[in-house]
Amino acid sequence: MDPTSRIRLSLGFVSTAISMIFGMDRGRKTPLSPGSIEVLYSSYFSKVRMGDIAGMLKITPSSATDLVNYLEREGFMRRIQDENNRRSILVVPTEKGEEWILDTEEKMYGFIESGLSRLKPDEQLLFADLCARFSGVHDNFSFLASVKSFKEDRGSVRVPLITRKNGRLLRLEEVVDARYSEKHVVEKKEDNMIFETRVPETCDGIQDEVTVEQYDEMQRGLRDEGHMPIEELVKFSQSGDNALEVGPGPGYLGLEWLKHTKDTNLTGLEISPAMIRMAEKNAKDYHLSDRATYREGNALAMPFSDGTFDLAFSNGSLHEWEDPKKVFSEILRVLKPGGRVSVSDLKRDLSTEIYRFMLETCEGSEIRKGFETSVHAAYVQEELEKMLGDVGFSWLQVITHPYGLVVIGKK
């Protein structure tokens, strides 16, 4: 049997088995519909606002309300007020809802471990890697992006199989044998990056107050959803670090870093006075004004003495740097011997699914436009490796992941 048919048959079994695990084979006896399960799972792993459910499920607001009302009556979910936005109502699982999820996951993990037990340890790792490459799903973020993209594209992603011959509708195996016979070669189409050629973005930052407020709201949402590289940055840090953040914007990454580290201090170098005012306001809200200082300046010529900082980091501003090599040279200069650098940013070769998902999370026309130009101005791994190869760090590595790049190094 050809690979395509084998995969389809295997996935057909997996789909049937998983439906049984979720109780979908019980017909009307199951207490939860597919939409209910999606809302319950989504609210378990991330914040779900009442007003977002209709768009998430592609149903009317009244139908979304009816669905939540049902889940509340059955004891699976409850409504609460969002602590960060008193006008927003969140839906969260009750203990019964969490127990249903955990019971389902016990069955799911058992099903997966049973199948993996037929593979050797190295085959298990290979299988996991192939599944990630096949699906495009590497973590929670790419899972959400892929699900959303599949919802939109599932009607258009089809291979023609309905065929008639002499008035007779051909059976599936007849069409498949003809299409996927050994003589039939399917040429793989290489995935193209969203933007082939890099187009530089403004190097002046966001200056107007209205867009700064919109950007602040977006960044706060990314923080609340856990989409900032805070955990990785904390692991990269040491107690007592005096850190430099290049292009902090509204400051959430640096402030979260301060919040999760001990005896640390932060200086943010920002080109936009409006962003500095927002960052200072946020630092006050965090009660961290005594540990966070923001300076106006250009990263091409940093207003700091040699060997000032133990750590330098940045997230989301690399694509705006007029001369990244010069900025990394400046970072090298202001770091102490043994100092570390961690710079994360978008990449230009995002998958279509993740690009589309990230774009749709941007609220406000200016922010959406800014995201598009930011991806267009972003780099790919090979470009940065070539550009930064001789900057002078004792080691410097460019790492790519599904939704961006990370440059880490040491002086």
UniProtKB/TrEMBL annotation:
<dbReference type="InterPro" id="IPR013216">
    <property type="entry name" value="Methyltransf_11"/>
</dbReference>
<dbReference type="InterPro" id="IPR036390">
    <property type="entry name" value="WH_DNA-bd_sf"/>
</dbReference>
<feature type="domain" description="HTH marR-type">
    <location>
        <begin position="1"/>
        <end position="136"/>
    </location>
</feature>
<protein>
    <submittedName>
        <fullName>MarR family transcriptional regulator</fullName>
    </submittedName>
</protein>
<dbReference type="InterPro" id="IPR036388">
    <property type="entry name" value="WH-like_DNA-bd_sf"/>
</dbReference>
<dbReference type="Pfam" id="PF01047">
    <property type="entry name" value="MarR"/>
</dbReference>
<keyword id="KW-0472">Membrane</keyword>
<dbReference type="Pfam" id="PF08241">
    <property type="entry name" value="Methyltransf_11"/>
</dbReference>
<dbReference type="GO" id="GO:0008757">
    <property type="term" value="F:S-adenosylmethionine-dependent methyltransferase activity"/>
</dbReference>
<dbReference type="InterPro" id="IPR000835">
    <property type="entry name" value="HTH_MarR-typ"/>
</dbReference>
<dbReference type="GO" id="GO:0003700">
    <property type="term" value="F:DNA-binding transcription factor activity"/>
</dbReference>
<keyword id="KW-0812">Transmembrane</keyword>
<keyword id="KW-1133">Transmembrane helix</keyword>
<feature type="transmembrane region" description="Helical">
    <location>
        <begin position="6"/>
        <end position="24"/>
    </location>
</feature>
<dbReference type="InterPro" id="IPR029063">
    <property type="entry name" value="SAM-dependent_MTases_sf"/>
</dbReference>
